[in-house]
Amino acid sequence: MNGYEMPNLIQALEVLNELLDLTTTYDLTYARDPEYAQDILTNLKAKVQSHYLQSPQPVHTHAYSPYPYDLYYCCLYNLYHNPLVSINFGSQRKLNQSYIQQITRTRAYFQMCTGTF
Prior knowledge:
Elements: H1 9-29, H2 34-54, H3 69-81, H4 92-114
């Protein structure tokens, strides 16, 4: 993906899976090992930024797409502009879960649209 090419369905799902793995790993380690969790969070932010900046906006793509690319782009947009952060008050777990939920909803919608379960 060079910023001009739209990722295909498999590439988009791989990106979402990668982001989900990093977010889940962060969620499972932030209470036990804060230093390692911070490294994961830094890696997650870098991955989101990279994928978001390399993806063309939906208005610059073909009208026909075999999957809902606009939903994929919207997910990356939300993750990029509302990054996961460590908090000292409130519930870190709830914040993590909202980030995870954004990714899983997008993946689930892809699966509904393509009929792959």
